[in-house]
TrEMBL record:
Domain spans labelled Cyclic nucleotide-binding: 8-128
Domain of life: Bacteria
Name of the molecule in the record: cAMP-activated global transcriptional regulator CRP
Family annotation (Pfam families): cNMP_binding, HTH_Crp_2
Keywords: DNA-binding, Transcription, Transcription regulation
Transmembrane segments: none
SMART domains tied to this protein: cNMP, HTH_CRP
Record-level GO cellular component terms: cytosol
Molecular function (Gene Ontology), one example: DNA-binding transcription factor activity
Length: 217
């Protein structure tokens, strides 16, 4: 995985990408290892080169709410490069994973010498924040069914000429519930009804969307 493929750095010159690569380090983490803890001092950007990690927050009762699942080419902790705040979420390896890390102190030294990187990064971060704002707004306005549909359709890829879509990621009902902020029982009921209605097929932990899902439950 090359960091030039990370959209955060879209628009940088090859020599600028090389500078970032030269100042980064690569680390490997075993399954279930926590890479960062919510509340930690933020001091680095991570780019996922292999494996999968989950980004999550925990409530006072210890229940985890999954914010995102990241894999090859995704990144997290980018705001650590620009501010001195603490981590807003935890990240745990779902499987053996390798990440490339750029530390803030190294990054600040680069910005002092290469102002174009600052300009490009600010532009790309603004675009990313706008997308996150829209995602949060969408989740807040939709009911549980709508959020489940949003998760399923965002993960699905074309599977056949008949227009069906397949989710290659293995998802449990609890993992879907964590993503949408609902109970496993509610998600199970929604998936059962969609299966009975012949909208989806559940093959083990893989889901196939046979036709367009209803807009309302």
């Amino acid at each position: 995985m090359s960091i030039e493929n990370v959209d955060l750095f879209d628009g940088l010159m090859p020599e600028e990408i090389q500078i970032l690569r030269d100042t980064s380090v690569v680390r490997e983490f075993a399954k279930n290892t926590v890479l960062i803890h919510e509340g930690d001092v933020a001091d680095s950007l991570y780019v996922v080169e292999s494996g999968r990690v989950k980004v999550y927050c925990s409530d006072k009762g210890g229940k985890d709410f999954v914010l995102n699942i990241l894999e090859y080419g995704d990144y997290f902790g980018e705001l650590a490069l620009l501010d001195d705040d603490k981590r807003s979420a935890s990240v745990r390896a779902m499987e053996a994973s390798k990440v490339r890390i750029i530390y803030k102190e190294d990054f600040k030294a680069i910005l002092d010498l290469h102002p174009n990187i600052t300009r490009i990064l600010n532009k790309n971060l603004t675009r990313r924040i706008r997308k996150l704002t829209n995602d949060v707004k969408s989740l807040a306005l939709q009911d549980v069914y709508g959020r489940v549909v949003k998760v399923l359709t965002s993960l699905a890829q074309p599977a056949a000429e008949d227009g069906s879509m397949r989710i290659d990621e293995k998802l449990t009902q609890q993992e879907i519930a964590d993503r949408v902020g609902s109970s496993r029982e509610m998600v199970a009921r929604i998936l059962k009804d969609l299966t009975i209605g012949e909208y989806i097929d559940v093959d083990g932990r893989h889901i196939v969307i046979r036709r367009k899902l209803p807009e309302s439950y």
